């Protein structure tokens, strides 16, 4: 099927415990975060890159109407080898990690890490997302928790067990199953470290490149 008008990636609300939420952010409640089915959720590291979507016709950062930026040349070059293999109607969303954002990672990372896949108005389940990433030869963001909806402290303990707030921006909690774009605010939420720098349209200020994974 043909890809319809390309959508902007939805805005992700903060969890109520997120110290990085500002007055301009949407903050949800644990009660509103209501996974479907068996209540299984996935928590992944929130990698500090540029929200980017790949599709058969090309690549865009968060919004298809956004302006092209010079630092996006690297992700466009990378995507040129991937996009022709993406079926019409499928969108692959992830983090562009080709240039430093607010965090300069000291570990090797792939240029792009998948966190969601869309078919029309439907966000695919995490299992389907992983399957598509593997088929396309793409990495997915690291999973730090998988299971029934945890208590807030248990989830945060799982995050601190694998990283610390000087090394990573935070984590994203999502329903393991599929859901619609309209359901997104109740199925996906994030925790962001306090004082995380929000970069503007002029990033990156430096020409440094990230270390690449083999």
TrEMBL record:
Pfam families: RNA_ligase
Entry keyword GTP-binding: no
UniProt-listed Gene3D superfamilies: DNA ligase/mRNA capping enzyme (3.30.470.30)
Keyword Ligase: yes
Alphabetic keyword roster: Ligase
Signal sequence region: none
GO molecular function: ligase activity
Residue ranges constituting the RNA ligase domain according to the UniProt record: 39-192
Region called Disordered, residue ranges: 1-21
Protein name: RNA ligase
Record organism: Streptacidiphilus jiangxiensis
């Amino acid at each position: 099927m043909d890809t319809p008008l390309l959508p902007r990636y939805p805005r992700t609300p903060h969890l109520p415990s997120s110290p990085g939420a500002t007055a301009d952010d949407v903050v949800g409640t644990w009660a509103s975060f209501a996974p479907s089915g068996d209540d299984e959720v996935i928590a992944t590291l929130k990698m500090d890159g540029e929200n980017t979507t790949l599709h058969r016709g090309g690549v865009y950062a968060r919004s298809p109407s956004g302006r092209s930026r010079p630092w996006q040349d690297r992700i466009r070059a990378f995507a040129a080898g991937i996009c022709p293999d993406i079926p019409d109607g499928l969108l692959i969303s992830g983090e562009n990690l080709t240039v430093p954002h607010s965090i300069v990672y000291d570990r090797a990372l792939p240029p792009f890490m998948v966190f969601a896949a869309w078919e029309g108005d439907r966000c695919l389940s995490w299992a389907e997302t992983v399957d598509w990433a593997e088929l396309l030869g793409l990495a997915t963001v690291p999973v730090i928790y998988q299971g029934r909806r945890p208590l807030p402290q248990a989830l945060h303990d799982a995050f601190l067990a694998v990283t610390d707030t000087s090394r990573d921006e935070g984590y994203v909690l999502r329903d393991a199953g599929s859901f619609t774009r309209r359901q997104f605010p109740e199925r996906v939420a994030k925790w962001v470290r306090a004082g995380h720098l929000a970069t503007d349209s002029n990033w990156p200020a430096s020409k440094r490149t990230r270390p690449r994974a083999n």
